[in-house]
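User: Round two. Same drill as before: sequence, then structure, for each protein.

Assistant: Same drill it is. First protein:
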Amino acid sequence: MELKGKRILVVGLGRSGAGAANLLSLLGADVTVTDKKRKEQLGGVLDGISPSVKMSLGDYPESLKGIDMVVVSPGIPLTIEPLRKARGMGIKIIGELELAYEAVSGLQPKAGGDVPQFLAITGTNGKSTTTTLLDLMLVRAGFHTVFGGNIGNALTEEIVKRAGGNGRLTRNEPLEADFIVAEVSSFQLESIERFKPKGAAILNITPDHLDRYRSSDEYGEAKARIFLNQERDDFLVLNADDEETMRIYRETSDRKRPNIPEVYFFSRKREVRGVYSDGERIICNLPEGQRGALRAEFIGTEEVRIKGVHNLENAMAASAMALLAGVQPGALVEVLREFPGLEHRMEFVRELDGVQYINDSKGTNVGAVVRSIEGFREPIVLIAGGRDKAGDFGPLRSLIRERVKTLVLIGEASGTMKTALGDLTKTVLAGDFTEAVLLARQNARRGDIVLLSPACASFDMFRDFEHRGKEFKRIVMGLS
């Protein structure tokens, strides 16, 4: 894709939009960024944008005359008026992920090798932990990586940083990396065309973002686009224990051309072709093939530093991806023994009066909370609620009944959640977040867990899930 001299409009000015604008500018395009927010509402995001990029802020431009291509940020629905207008005019629309792929694919291969290969991970829950583990495993094995995506640092911006001090990225200059390690969301996958990762993984699919998708099936099909363009010399890693993932894979594969990728699995319930656990050990089972045979019991489950059934799945998924990318088991073992986990994802905050406080603010959907609760044997005081994403709280009912001694509800969804779950255990409504933590402490006894795992978005009370998690930790650390 030739971008030099093209007039390109970037829609949406978050991290992805800023990264896309800077990459396009570096490649010689004539770039304009647009956002419905005004300059004063966008804050520091504007500080890092190239001076050559033009701004159209406060509303979208009325005219798209002369625009050659539109690049849309993942948070922007493809149904908004400027994008409908662009489609009607025959203007090409791609996302930031597709732009990163096109930019890297068009580069000169590095000496004695290829252009960097994409390794992409999606799923409803566990993406950030799995992607981080995979990147650490590759780096420990001596590979050079570019790491980014939905995890918080835009791939396009990371590619710009790798352009070096000369501030140039051209087809005649290689990108000094072996792999692009990317966490990708359903929003990003909506707008791909040619994106074709060498290796891809789908961790799980549970209902989420139903305020954007018309159905759970539509959401799942967006996730399945990760292997849309893969071919037989590529590989795909799937969760054999997740029924929805397997159903979506089977149905999507039936509609695809017969040239599908090589498929491997991970499982904590049974032996599979890939990586599995027998309850005590994690076992690699790669049969003879183009990547060679490898069968090894490479680490005990108790040796994995991050705890919980969901993190065992994340560890196995990352291990399968790393092994298939050429990492030896020794590097995997070192990383799994050392990695402490990510902030706001089942993060241990402190123990006070014999009660453990756990920050799982990233648990923004029902499926995530199910996995979080499953990871504990101790009685739980659960803090949940926020902005409802049109999800179904029904799958939580049996776990709430069995394992949650007190349910503390916050935010806009508190009434809905009380109706759906309040008959199962002691349920209290908090007027604000500080009160929620204090109520949780009052109801917890020695040996209990106080778990923040909201099953909802944070935007009714906080900037984002990170803000919510930091506030939880600040309040908890202030308890005497």
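Second protein:
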Amino acid sequence: MSANHTTTTTSVKETSTNHKTEPQNTAHNILSVEKTTCCIVGGGPAGAILSLLLARQGIPVMLLEAHKDFNRYFRGDTLHSSVLEMMDELGLTDRLLQIRHTKTYKYITQTADGPVTFADFSRLKGKYPFMMIMEQVRFLEFIVAEAQRYPNFQLVMGANVQQLIEEDGIIRGVRYRGQGGWHEVRSDMTVGADGRFSRTRQLAGLKLIEHETPIDVLWFRLPRKPNEPEEELGEFGHGCLLVLTNRFEYWQIGYIIPKGYYPQIHASGLEALRQSVAETMPMLADRVDHLKEWKQVALLPVKTGRLKRWYRPGLLLIGDAAHIMSPIGGVGINYAIQDAVVAANVLRHPLKAGQVRQRHLASVQRQRELPTRIIQWFQSLSHEQIIVKTLKSGKPFKPPKIMLLPVMRDLPAKLMGYGVWPVHVKR
């Protein structure tokens, strides 16, 4: 245990909270009470990056992750130019690039008129004009290992947050179930970075304004051969859009369908799904038999949304906890990391002084809300005007002429690669 974190074993009184999920007497069985300056709930990209940035500033920070490891079956693995440049500002990109990864320079989709470049990252003027695809577990392990170099950082795995500690209308920390039972963390600041199904958001009573999208995605894996393309592939089929992401030994496949079509697909049987994949992407025809049962296929009902307010006194939400992104463009990780960088830039001095105010939390939202709204609008436009219109027409995808203009290759690449404007780590 770092000297910057204090731990006691005690019995404490139940503190006031408006959002309890456990019986009243749970707080009387607390095994330990720890104190830190910033408690971050959620060990995904946003939580890990924010932890590292605060730890580098000498701020005591505790990162709580509900799972016992960072490995998830269908986590996003894309790191865009903005993230690589922020890593470069921390002096970490050279080491990050030594971890196994692939690079994508263009999003290319087959159309009735031949292949069309939807986004050309190679035309970006930054230092890293490509999208990097790296297993998210490796990225998180790298970031956390870097944070662990600082004695004021602490990671707790298997910490399932169940309660927020609220006193006089201010969030003062969390209670979680972990090793041996209940534990409590008292903190000056709590950050919810626990993803699209955020428990922190629910406990705080912050309501997500959700927007239904017209698509859903089936996720599954098929083997990849060494001589096959390294870049991401896309192909419209009859009633589906197939997107292939290179994961070295296998393809992670997104099978995009109009919303509500899954029961019909399931009723048609697995053989019909295999045949659809083979017809849409003939190079996969020799391995679709690897799909042997429906439990190999995961349904992601696609939704987008965002909070009207990202904070309460003593609490800030970032990443998917504050705004849910569509998987289109693979931008969720990058926008979440940008949230974390802005939060660190704004909060580092107030945290050191012990004087975080609501205006600081509002400043984080103010800087990040417009870029979020714009990318969500862009994703919605892609859903409606390109994907669903093509899928329901039953005809091969024929891109609008405006998509063929060079500027229309640059705009999606910029929005995905950097966002509306770049975010930088303050020195």
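The longest strand covers residues 208-223.

User: Perfect.
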